[in-house]
Design a protein that fits this description.
Elements lengths: L5 H12 L9 E6 L6 H9 L4 E8 L3 H8 L7 E6 L4 H5 L4 E4 L15 H18 L4 E4 L4 H14 L8 E3 L2 H15 L10 E3 L6 E3 L12 H22 L7 H18 L5 E8 L7 E9 L2 E5 L9 H26 L3
Parallel strand pairs: 1-2, 1-4, 2-3, 4-5, 5-6
Antiparallel strand pairs: 7-8, 9-10, 10-11
Helix pairs in contact: 2-9, 5-6, 6-10, 7-8
The structure holds 1,4-dihydronicotinamide adenine dinucleotide.
GO molecular function: L-malate dehydrogenase (NAD+) activity
Subunit structure: Homodimer.
Keywords: NAD, Oxidoreductase, Tricarboxylic acid cycle
């Protein structure tokens, strides 16, 4: 089964399922930070899903209009808006999947870690509410720095006594989406067929595309590997610079996050063939959190696909060794942030 092109399958399924508007199942999805640059187009894409019966939009401002606007689309899900901390608990009641893109994005010259001080608090507060109101939900963390915000979420859930590592995900789908796009362009491949696993984390050199594991099988020169790897690692910065102060990736991010939500809903719905890359608690390496390909099931992470870490090229092995100290430091920073709080 491992020879199949997992994510491509997910992509085809997602593209196809958006064409149907008949409800097939009824899952409840909440977006926290729904009024923002990612939140709005993500809400639109999730509104198109036939698997969703309720779409709850939460933000500290500007979410009423977004919900009113979206609610006029004649797709099955009911849209509801929730503004401010006093409405957060209601937003989360009985929710199956919570997506968190709340927080500030990068401006030119900033690293994702520069966002830590603001976003760490936002993620902590929101995940506390998730723990209190829908502890069984799948939690998708988009807010950066993902390398630290996922460990923060894990610590908060542990403190609340409801941590299920199989249900906490750092969303790295955009790295896969970018890798697939850039490789297809470079090699003149049909986009829908291309699938590149991306492992490690979600910042700079911690983003490691395993080009040698690209499907369909394709060969790269050393120069191509270097150029593609660096472009995939810096793709977020490409967008930040092009937007020149107006933020970071929002539309491609919404597309990627919607794909991860759709995959999660299919897994919840009993589909037994759902694979994505995600940053999760992991035993694949000596680091406690690590992104890799996973199999999704009704209870979250069903399996970690370890085979893709075998037979790495020398370039990939060196890059893997090089990313570990940075990723380790980001994980420890996140854990310390929660543990040092009174
Ligand atoms: P944005 O500033 O356009 O939107 C953020 C939204 O969060 C705003 O509507 C704001 O009101 C809301 N917000 C702020 N504090 C909140 C709180 N306490 N509770 C609820 N909502 C709150 O930012 P954008 O572009 O949507 O980015 C959001 C986050 O996603 C950033 O941290 C960014 O770095 C991250 N990101 C992650 C990517 C990934 O691949 N994982 C890719 C691109 C961005």
């Amino acid at each position: 089964a491992l020879n199949r092109s997992y994510s491509t399958k997910a992509q085809k399924h997602t593209d196809r399922s958006y064409r149907y508007v008949q409800p097939r199942a009824s899952y409840k999805v909440a977006i926290l930070g729904a009024g923002g640059g990612i939140g709005q187009p993500l809400a639109l894409l999730i509104k198109m899903s036939p698997l969703v019966s309720a779409l709850n939009l939460y933000d500290i401002a500007n979410v009423k209009g977004v919900a009113a606007d979206l609610s006029h689309c004649n797709t099955p899900s009911q849209v509801a808006d929730f503004t401010g901390a006093s409405e957060l608990a209601n937003c989360l009641k009985d929710v199956n999947v919570v997506v968190i893109p709340a927080g500030v994005p990068r401006k030119p010259g900033m690293t994702r870690d520069d966002l830590f001080n603001i976003n760490a608090n936002i993620v902590k507060t929101l995940v506390e509410a998730v723990a209190d109101n829908c502890p069984d939900a799948f939690i998708h963390i988009i807010s950066n720095p993902v390398n630290s915000t996922v460990p923060i979420a894990a610590e908060v859930l542990k403190q609340k006594g409801v941590y299920d590592p199989k249900k906490l995900f750092g969303v790295t789908t955009l790295d896969v989406v970018r890798a697939n796009t850039f490789v297809a362009q470079k090699k003149n491949l049909k986009l829908i067929d291309v699938d590149v696993p991306v492992i490690g984390g979600h910042a700079g050199i911690t983003i490691l595309p395993l080009l040698s594991k690209t499907k369909p099988a394709v060969t790269f020169t050393d120069e191509e590997v270097e150029e593609l790897t660096v472009r995939i690692q810096n793709a977020g910065t490409e967008v930040v610079e092009a937007k020149a102060g107006a933020g970071s990736a929002t539309l491609s991010m919404a597309y990627a996050a919607a794909r991860f939500v759709e995959s999660s809903l299919r897994a919840l719905d009993g589909d037994s063939d759902v694979y994505e890359c995600s940053y999760i608690q992991s035993e694949l390496t000596e680091l406690p959190f690590f992104a890799s390909r996973i199999k999704l099931g009704k209870n979250g992470v069903e399996a970690v696909i370890s085979s893709e870490l075998q037979g790495l090229t020398e370039y990939e092995q060196k890059a893997l060794d090089a990313l570990k100290p940075e990723l380790k430091a980001s994980i420890e920073k996140g854990v310390a942030f929660v543990q040092k709080q009174p």
